[in-house]
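lol ok so funny story. i was supposed to be doing the assay writeup but got distracted and ended up predicting the structure for this chain instead. priorities right. anyway since i did it might as well share w the group, maybe its usefull for someone
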Amino acid sequence: MKVAVLPGDGIGPEIVAEALAVLRQLDLGLELAEAPVGGAAYEAHGDPLPQRTLALAREADAILFGAVGDPRYDALERAKRPEQAILGLRKALGLFANLRPARVHEALADASPLRRERVAGLDLLIVRELTGDIYFGEPRGVRDAGAAGREGFDTMRYSEAEIRRIARVAFEAARRRRRRVCSVDKANVLETSRLWRAVVSEEAQRHPDVELSHMYVDNCAMQLVRAPGQFDVILTGNLFGDILSDEAAMLTGSIGMLPSASLDANGKGLYEPIHGSAPDLAGQGVANPLATILSAAMMLRHSLGRPEAAARIERAVERALADGYRTADIHTAGTKRVGTAEMGRAVRERL
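and the output, tada:
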């Protein structure tokens, strides 16, 4: 099994190193091949997604990704910015289904900004469509609008086929959980959302064992704070999913805890923490590696067919937290404040 390792920028190399150490300790016979991506690739090759990196990603059975981005590159043209690497990988590899679990570990229930009784036991999954919506719609740009000055415009679009395939992923995921899907849109305003709601409703008829509900995105944002336990699987588009998944992350106590998977139609995936590159923390050894370690567990489960190894990693993380290990981003009464390497070591010891 070949894994393309793309550490990226900022804290990416540090947190990926800890995930790789966990994978090596499991001794699964993985072939790990590393390549530059994002700002690091731009510095080395003048391109955030060099052809060699893309070729490695195509050949691999799965991709372990760190993070990309740095304010130093904000002035670059859009095509050269580090963030284009992740968008390019999603598009080139057909990674249309983003799975973002948000689970409150018992040891961290007090770290949530919400009261313990509101988040204890929280376990939801956001299924976000990745390759359509306003991020990829055309036309887009900035132009002179005459007397009104400049205007910027983007196009929000979805095809029936794109909606139907992501809906299937959500319904199948719900079958392995508590059999409830809440489809989130803005059908009272947007034409794309009206089509979204119609197609999701049609697909629900093919999954009669799963309960479907619909919710406007603004109400969903409110309900995630008011009563997050009502949700099992949240199905939504690219833009809404981007926002709601970060909100759900904070319910768990820290965005540094949450992994993600981006899958194609055959289960090949790119696995990454949902947080960014945090360039202000890079090189200090203080970043939380747990989201990346848990992303490696998701990789073993969804793309590499090793669910037992994935479960071992997840149990080791749970035990490290139960034993009081906390990185700086986790604001709760842990007994052992540690850095990146120490947290990774704590997980490996518990394997």
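Residues 160-175 form the longest helix (16 residues). Residues 1 and 304 are 7 Å apart (CA to CA).
back to the writeup now i swear
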